[in-house]
Specification:
The chain has 372 residues and is of the alpha/beta class. It contains nine helices and 15 strands. Helix 2 packs across helix 3 and helix 7 packs across helix 9. The longest helix has 22 residues.
Length: 372
């Protein structure tokens, strides 16, 4: 299969090189109908050959990844399986990082085994996706978290991975907006703004941290900052905010009021599929990139139609070291369209409606681990 070689060959479904050579949101419906099935089938075959647990699941169901007619017919795994099984498609000696979800519920944490090749693919994909909102140059980076959030002595938990991953796109050493006790570091922020010299900069953080420890605190004390040259990218933790009646619109309104920030992009993703995040466009929709696809399924797992709420199934072309390429999530969403969003991005676009009832908060390690 051509999926992992470095040539551009579209005859069997294309290599990843072809996807990286395209603008990050250029894979439209005609491209996906022509090539995506072969790409997903190649990944499934790879994991069938190299992951005994994945092979046993397919054999037990009597499925052959090469015979599925459509992407919708390919085997998908429930995302919770990563909390219950070791799913690895490379030798243990090839694992560079073990990513763990931040959830601490009854069923434990997901463990995602990433080798160097997969890590590089994830990093490159994230970089391509981010160019659509920050351009192709590195920028000064302000992380809305405490410096201790970047360190994880027990492994690469979701929050640590996100901070380290986004730090790869900083033009210098990142600054942190919060102190060790999770309070706003006004002096540190002022020093950072002085270093930017009035030029654009990137802001990153987890949504619940940005709200609870930054925006909400600034609003409470009546403090104001001018972050108008910033571009904020954030994700994760919406379930915690929903309990406080905080939605995307309210967060953006408070960000405009307290820090004069209007360029804000939420993203959807998970630790099981880092790199291929679904970025929110200017119209409030999440978008599939060249490296991802979504399917919405009803409660009986049949395919839902446009505008019909259902369970989100996410597909990523990046995971090689573990079978996380085709997952049924524990999130509800609704497909809003394909190839016709006013923002100009091609591919499917959708909204996330929340978690399935009874599901635990998920870890959102949506960026790749650092690589040598």
């Amino acid at each position: 299969m051509l999926l992992f070689d470095s040539t551009i060959d579209m005859s069997v479904g294309g290599s990843l090189a072809s996807l990286f050579s395209m603008p990050p949101f250029a894979a439209d419906r005609s491209w996906r109908q022509r090539y995506l099935r072969a790409i997903v089938a190649a990944l499934s075959q790879h994991h069938y050959d190299n992951c005994a647990a994945f092979r046993n699941i397919l054999d037990g169901l009597g499925l052959d990844p090469e015979t599925a007619e459509e992407v919708e017919d390919q085997l998908y795994l429930p995302v919770g399986l990563f909390k219950r099984m070791i799913l690895r498609s490379v030798a243990a000696s090839e694992v560079r990082h073990t990513l763990t979800s931040s959830g601490t519920g009854r069923s434990g944490r997901s463990e995602i085994f990433v080798d160097r090749e997969t890590s590089l693919l994830q990093m490159r994909a994230l970089s391509r996706i981010l160019t659509s909102v920050i351009g192709d140059k590195r920028m000064p980076l302000l992380i809305v978290d405490a410096p201790t959030g970047a360190a994880d002595p027990t492994g690469y938990a979701a929050r640590s991975v996100a901070i380290q991953g986004f730090s790869l796109f900083a033009s210098g050493r990142p600054a942190f907006a919060l102190t060790a006790d999770m309070k706003s570091d006004m002096d540190g922020i002022s020093e950072f703004l002085g270093r930017t010299g009035g030029k654009p900069f990137l802001i990153f953080g987890f949504t619940h941290v940005i709200w609870q420890h930054f925006l909400e605190e600034l609003a409470r004390i009546g403090a104001r900052l001018d972050l108008s040259n910033g571009i904020m990218i954030h994700g994760g933790g919406w379930k915690r905010l929903a309990e406080k009646n905080v939605n995307d619109r309210r967060l953006k309104a408070v960000a405009k009021q307290c820090v004069n920030l209007s360029k804000i992009h939420n993203y959807y993703g998970m630790v099981e599929q880092p790199g291929s995040i679904y970025l929110q466009c200017e119209n409030g929709f999440f978008h599939c990139s060249n490296f991802s696809e979504i399917i919405i399924r009803r409660a009986d797992l049949s395919i839902a139609q446009y505008g019909e709420p259902g369970i989100l199934q996410t597909i990523s072309v990046l995971p090689k070291s573990y079978p996380g390429h085709n997952l049924l999530t524990e999130d509800l969403g609704v497909l809003r369209g394909e190839d016709d969003c006013p923002c100009g991005r091609k591919g499917k676009y959708f909204e996330v409606l929340g978690r399935l009832p009874g599901s635990e908060p998920k870890g959102c390690g949506d960026v790749p681990s650092n690589v040598d």
